Amino acid sequence: MKFVVCVKQVPDTTEVEVDPETGTIIREGVPSVLNAFDEFALNVAVQLKETLEEDVEITALSMGPPQAKEALTKCLAIGADSAILLTDRVFAGADTWATAVTLSRAIKKLGGADVIFCGQEASDGNTAQVGPEVAAHLGIPQLTFVSEIEKIEDKNIICKKETDEGFLRTRCPLPVVIACMPTPGFLPKIPNMREIIKGKRKPYEEWTFKDIGGKEEDYGLEGSESVVVRTYSPPPKGEGIIIDDEPEVAVQKLMDYFEKEGIL
Amino acid sequence: MAKTNLWDERDLTEEQKLFKESILDWAERNLPLDRVIKMNREGHPFPPDIIKGLADLGVIMGTVPEERGGLGLNWKDQSLIAEVIGYVDPSIATAAGFMAVSTGWGFTIDRYANDVIREKYVKPAINGDKFIGIATTEPGGGSDVSNFKCTGEKDGDEWVLNGEKTFISGVEEAKKIGGGYWVNVRTGPKEPGAPHKNMTAFFVPIDSDGLTPAEPYDDAGRNAISTGGFIMEDVRVPEEHMLGEKGKGFYYTMEGFDNARILIGASAVGVTRRILEEAADYIKERETFGNPLAKYEGIQFEFVERYIEMEASNLMVKKVAAMQDVRYDEEGWLARTNKAQTYSPKEIAKWISMIKYKVPHLAKDTADDAMHWLGAAGYSSEYIFETAWRGVMSYCVGAEGGANIQKIVIGRETLGPDYVPYK
Ligand SMILES: Cc1cc2nc3c(=O)[nH]c(=O)nc-3n(C[C@H](O)[C@H](O)[C@H](O)COP(=O)(O)OP(=O)(O)OC[C@H]3O[C@@H](n4cnc5c(N)ncnc54)[C@H](O)[C@@H]3O)c2cc1C
Predict the structure, then answer these.
(1) Is A227 part of a structural domain of the chain?
(2) What is the pLDDT of residue A128?
């Protein structure tokens, strides 16, 4: 069985600041990390592999600049069996559509996969579009907001999908794209030194657009359907009010406030 | 972790970045600073979950070749790991116990031990199931390594060991989880003018008949790991417990010191980095007379001085690690190729003594400064500084060799052997 896990290297959002003039993220000196949603997806894939009797090969796949190799090296340490970085100037400036085109063509070149895992979203763009678009390009089903995979049996996957009301236990035939949503308090596997060293020895390849075929204009900025008109930080919301009192007093104060403001 | 980040990762390899990330992630879950402080308040023996955790993480004895249970790491990698461990635990209990002692000496034991000792003690120690350490120091003194009184006499297939070892790290830990020590004894007469001859190293299990552990010392710092000692009365060990060749113990010991001291230098860089980061967080926030403390030159310039010294030390450690990698070839054995002749062991020892002297003192002085910068808060154990200060002081006063002994080595190699003070 073949799993592909799509991952992205993102700026460490705990340290990101936005340039107030240009509205863009200041990337200089900000460390890059493996997108936490993708790390969760990889952890889910690795755990699933451990429960399956048949052989599973996990390929970590990323599109990005050459330094995104670091994120893939981490995937190999966590448990991916091989990794491919799609890196080419032609891919630069891609929106979610062009990214999904690139990833899905690479997956086709790999001969497809039984399960394609991705994170629900990337912490830098938060669009949550790439996974579903990959499914669309490949013409296969998708399950989003997946927090847990129960099992794979008879070429079907059974998993738990978070909804606003609770969760859905869903069965879906393979092949499928699974967009994973980390459960609260989830602690990703910390690769140890031995796994890191072993990971470095696993197969790693870099592919350019020539490797996956198609025309240059399918990719990157040219292949993108969306146009960014402006990015900006919303103005600060102003100071909130904190009522720190015994419950009865606090509730009364809150009611008084609602009344004063005409909310009630 | 501190908000201030003084790491510069750009000169790290991809693997090193991941080593660092994993250790920091592990520490965030298992060994945050408040636990370090608590562990040092509660005292030894070392918490078993931390020993096992460090072993599972793979930070102990990484330089041992892969086929013998290690990771076959080079010294550049192992010293980066040591630096991160020092950063994670500035009390240096972890660094002392499991980096310097277990890794520096464990690696050296592995080099000279036969497969029996390797299987029975080294491998389990790598896995965190046993503790192995070094016992050279005696009640008569630690600096004069050639002048020890413990003896070993051959009796049939066995050696009979007698004497006392003192100020030995990890005795309580070894008692608890099993393990043993590299012990130096005299196995022949003391030759006039060459007292270092006829010293032999043995591996002595802590549970040997005739070995009585002493009460642990009540040390000023690094309290999460014990310092103790033991008396040997007719302790019998088989011939296979001899490390290397008879009569060569002094030379192996010097090599072991080198291997431990480089990791001490590296871990003290990490301690200094953590102290500076934690202190920076505070002095950037705390205001006096309308300004953050960090804006006052009296504090900022001291901070900067320490930062410069830390990065200079870091470069020195990297140089020394590179020298070590020339010294040991790929298999982890003393290289006998021409390449190795680039540095003589004595030259390497000089550089190692330079970092063993310089960096722990820097870490201690930086902790001292940080306590001044913070005032009363810095003096309290709410912050890490006093715990760090007391911990790294052990490396200044004596652990793995006193300060003046390092200077004697450096003086000998720079001014010449005629100027060795005690000759
Ligand atoms: C916390 C801790 C843990 C330790 N763990 C271990 C361990 O695991 N195993 C082990 O074997 N030992 C251990 N030691 C002992 C350590 O190796 C010795 O402290 C060290 O070698 C110095 O020996 P000493 O303390 O007997 O001091 P001494 O040898 O008595 O020296 C006292 C002082 O005089 C200085 N001095 C000595 N000779 C000269 C000279 N010729 N010229 C100028 N100055 C000189 C020394 O630098 C030192 O400052 C530990 C020590 C400490 C503090």
Answers:
(1) no
(2) 86
